Amino acid sequence: MTKQTRCPNCQSIYKVTVPQLTVAQGMVCCPKCNERFNAVLHLKQPNINLPSDQAPRSHEQRAFFNRTKVISDDSILGLDILTLKVDHSNLDLHHYLNNLNYYHRNNVYCFPAQSPTQSREMAFQRKKRPQLAYYLMWGIINFSLFLLFIFQILWFNPQLLEQSQLSNLFFNKACALIQCETLDQRYTKLNVEHFKIERTLDNHTQISGILMNYNTESLKLPQLKIIMQKDEQYLERMISPAEYLAPSLHGISRIPARHPYSFKVTLLQQYDAKWQYEIQIVRP
């Protein structure tokens, strides 16, 4: 947008643009008479046919420094805001902007005007919204992280698997998918070897053997379930680690990998060769 300004010395008229005035801070130099003047204060106003009640009076047009003429000219340009004053102040926005450089010597930065193509591209980028694939991708990532969090809770708290069949099913499916060993699968590699049934001196039944851990990591000591059958009689008994471990091993809670642990337990039941004994490992 171009404006016309008039040199106050030689009355020459020049065309100036708003960016030029911004960079030069309103000050220009006349090439004919080398007069430096404020182009904003000497803008040439277009001839506008106004109604008789709005046209400036003759004494307003003759008075060069008349304040009423400035207000009339600003109203024609639609710049009434430049004539507004703050309460208890004689300085309006028009004079403040023209004299700003006298009080502040900071540089004025002017950004180059963007081309219509660049403006359309920036407007398109601002209006561009994430597509369905964006939300789908982040939805899958968040859901996977949630499942991983649930899996870790069940992995470090195996007692929760016994309380909920749904969580046990989810845990087994997840382990089958990523090919990991569940706690039940690890205890299947804990075997009882050299199982013996003997009679004590007081005619009681003594059961002994060796626990062998074939896992690559240690396991918590299990409970032993002893099943006794004779004809139609059926008896069961659960034995804790404190009962079957040797006195030298008391206080140990885990069985190392590839390491045999001997156990021995005496039942108060009278020894009878007709009884059939079976021992099972029950994970804690």
TrEMBL record:
Q: Which Pfam families match?
A: DUF3426 (PF11906)
The domain of life is Bacteria
Entries under InterPro entries matching the protein = DUF3426, Znf/thioredoxin_put
Q: Can you say what this protein is called?
A: DUF3426 domain-containing protein
TM segments?
132-156
Which NCBIfam families does this UniProt record tie to the protein?
A: MJ0042_CXXC (TIGR02098)
Q: Which UniProt keywords apply?
A: Membrane, Transmembrane, Transmembrane helix
Q: Organism, per UniProt?
A: Acinetobacter rudis
